[in-house]
Hints:
This protein has a two-stranded antiparallel ribbon. The protein is mostly loops. Helices cover 6% and strands 9% of the residues. It has one helix spanning 17-20, and strands spanning 31-33, 39-41. The longest helix has 4 residues, at 17-20.
Amino acid sequence: MAYGAHHSPTPPxxxxxxxxxxxxxxxxxGTVITRDGQHELCDTCQPEPGxxxxxxxxxxxxxxxx
Length: 66
C-alpha cells in the first residue's frame, strides 16, 4: 500500500540550481536525501551557510505613499 510523504515542520532547503547543474553527487538537484529521509543541501555543490552570498537575495518590500 502506498503512503503519502511525511509532513515536516521545516520547509525543504532551497538549493542554487546554477551550482548544481553539473554535480554528479546530487545529479543536478542540489539536494540529497539522508538515510533518515530528510532533505539536505548537497555538500558537494552547495556552499555552506554563512559563506558568500545566499542564492536568493533578501525579500524586497516597497511601500508606496498613498
